[in-house]
């Protein structure tokens, strides 16, 4: 690797980590203002214009509070849990492409930190580690509410991973690759001449199952039973305060960001341009050199990626303040007796159709 | 020659393996094993076997060990009963087993390092794998053509294991 490669990789890592760090305060603000908006109240509006400085105040408060460790907790695992919870989703984002490539001088820079041919498996491997911080936090806090939250969280994540995996396998049959970049390229065509060939149009049932499952995987309402306030006070992070709580909070939003990125990469064309953007770009095609046009396209692709992820994050907030929380037996019933069989039948149907068409 | 990153990861794996055996609480034992699996996946990844690395992390760290930790947390084992008793025949047997595995591995390593041409090559070279489209295509091609019958037998075996676990776990079978 030359110096240029190191700088390119460092810049991409900075972009992804920066995206994660800048999304969290925006989402915290939007979650609170959005909640107020949907519930017809005012929401935080004292700190800065429209309360925009509220996340800064929240973070300052959380970082400057005393770091408290409960006497009965096992200290090592108690401290380890929030760290893992923040690391796993950020690491998973390394394999998600956020643009095609830039041409700088005579170098071609792929807009993806790790261009792996097994990209989706790498994302799943890191996302699969997200269950440990919940278990560890609940167990290490030595508190029965934390423990119950941890048990709920881990069994919920294990259960919905199955439906999520089966929905994913049906899409892998369609794309015939594990490379996330190749999936985006596949979706960058048009279907029947007028709609983009996105996964959601090819296999809407898998998209629905996948979406429901990522709500359960990220422990968001209507599946936020691990921290169900009315029963478990705060669930697995009950004994956490100050900056360790802030890490859990950060991790929840980064996990949402990662799940949204994966979802749009598989079902909504990833960084592929939104219909209409290609038309606008075509005006610049004649006046720019091919390299510069590629760079302009890449920037438009990054914008499309960020926009799509933003829409998905909005959807997360929208659902949170619209749906009531499930009961735990309802959650398990939905996961095992409804989503799992549907995903299995869907997989079989997709396999038969593909065998019939002979792709 | 061993790369320094591999060496560091190997030391981490060895330390975590020792911690798995010698830690007192079952949770920290299980969690050391999880971290060991992840570090092992790191070794595979650094060596360029991304597919195996991802499988290692997904199957062992992400699935099997989750169930281990989960059941340990549910069973709530007491720490007092986990002292290692050196006189018991189980410990002696375990030590004998470990020693024989170590002997086998050392023998293989000595054989490997004494061979002039390095390790025996596999059935495919790196160029062949690259030309047919990567590790995933190579492995799945072999699995669903040459080893198809064995693959089906193993899935049957897993099904039998699941059914028997169900029978054992259920108190009354109607």
Alpha-carbon distance between the two ends of chain B: 62 Å
Oligomerization category of the chains in this entry: heterodimer
Largest sheet of chain B: none
Tell me the number of helical segments of chain B per DSSP (H or I, 4 or more residues long): 7
Share in helix of chain B:
over 70%
Overall description:
Chain A is globular and about 65 Å long. Chain A starts with a helix and ends with a helix. Chain A has one domain (3-357). In chain A, the strands form two sheets. Chain A has a two-stranded antiparallel ribbon. Chain A is mainly alpha-helical. The model of chain A has no long low-confidence stretch (mean pLDDT 85). In chain A, strand 3 and strand 4 form a beta hairpin. The longest helix of chain A has 36 residues, at 3-38. Chain A has helices at residues 3-38, 54-64, 75-92, 119-128, 131-140, 144-175, 180-187, 199-202, 204-217, 229-232, 242-267, 277-281, 290-320, 328-357; strands at residues 101-104, 107-110, 190-191, 195-196. By secondary structure, chain B is mainly alpha-helical. Chain B folds into three domains: 1-79, Up-down Bundle (Four Helix Bundle (Hemerythrin (Met), subunit A)); 86-120; 123-174. Helix content of chain B is 75%, strand content 0%. Chain B has seven helices and no strands. At the A-B interface, helix 4, helix 5 and helix 6 of A face helix 2 and helix 3 of B.
């Amino acid at each position: 690797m030359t110096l240029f490669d190191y700088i390119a990789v460092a810049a991409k890592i900075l972009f992804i980590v920066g995206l994660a760090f800048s999304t969290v305060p925006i989402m915290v603000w939007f979650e609170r203002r959005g909640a107020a908006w949907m519930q017809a109240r005012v929401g935080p509006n004292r700190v800065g214009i429209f309360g925009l400085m509220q996340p800064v105040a929240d973070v300052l408060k959380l970082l400057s509070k005393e770091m408290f460790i409960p006497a009965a907790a096992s200290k090592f695992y108690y401290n380890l849990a929030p760290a893992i919870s923040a690391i796993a989703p950020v690491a998973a984002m390394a394999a998600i492409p956020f643009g095609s490539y830039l041409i700088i001088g005579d170098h071609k820079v792929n807009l993806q930190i790790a261009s792996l041919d097994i990209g989706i498996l790498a994302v799943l491997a890191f996302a699969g580690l997200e269950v440990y911080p919940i278990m560890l936090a609940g167990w290490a806090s030595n508190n029965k509410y934390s423990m119950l939250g941890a048990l709920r969280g881990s069994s919920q994540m294990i259960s919905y991973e199955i439906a999520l995996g089966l929905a994913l396998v049906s899409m892998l049959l369609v794309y015939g690759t594990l490379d996330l970049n190749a999936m985006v390229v596949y979706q960058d065509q048009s279907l029947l001449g007028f709609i983009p060939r996105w996964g959601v149009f090819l296999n809407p049932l898998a998209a629905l199952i996948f979406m429901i499952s990522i709500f359960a995987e990220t422990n968001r309402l209507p599946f936020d039973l691990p921290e169900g306030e009315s029963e478990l006070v705060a669930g697995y992070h009950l004994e956490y305060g100050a900056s360790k709580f802030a890490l859990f909070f950060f991790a929840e939003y980064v996990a949402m960001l990662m799940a949204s990125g994966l979802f749009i990469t598989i079902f909504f064309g990833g960084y592929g341009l939104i219909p209409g953007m290609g038309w606008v770009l075509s005006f610049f095609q004649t006046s720019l050199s091919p390299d510069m046009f590629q760079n302009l396209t890449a920037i438009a692709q990054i914008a499309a990626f960020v926009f799509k992820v933003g829409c998905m994050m909005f959807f997360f907030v929208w659902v949170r303040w619209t749906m009531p929380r499930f009961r735990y037996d309802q959650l398990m019933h939905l996961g095992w007796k409804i989503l799992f069989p549907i995903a299995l039948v869907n997989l079989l149907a997709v396999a038969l159709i593909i065998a019939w068409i002979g792709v | 020659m061993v790369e320094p990153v591999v060496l560091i990861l190997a030391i981490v794996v060895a330390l975590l393996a020792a911690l798995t055996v010698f830690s007192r609480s079952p949770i920290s034992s299980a969690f050391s094993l999880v971290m060991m699996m992840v570090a092992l996946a790191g070794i595979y990844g650094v060596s360029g076997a991304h597919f195996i690395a991802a499988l290692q992390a997904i199957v062992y760290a992400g699935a099997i060990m989750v169930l281990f930790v989960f059941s340990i947390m549910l069973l709530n084992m007491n720490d007092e009963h986990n002292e290692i008793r050196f006189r018991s025949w189980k410990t002696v047997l375990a030590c004998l087993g470990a020693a024989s595995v170590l002997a086998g591995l050392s023998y293989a390593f000595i054989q490997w390092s004494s061979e002039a041409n390095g390790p025996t090559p596999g059935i495919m070279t790196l160029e062949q794998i690259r030309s047919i489209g990567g590790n995933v295509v190579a492995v799945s091609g072999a699995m669903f053509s040459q080893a198809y019958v064995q693959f089906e037998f193993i899935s049957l075996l897993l099904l039998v294991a699941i059914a028997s676990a169900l029978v054992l776990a259920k108190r009354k079978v109607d």
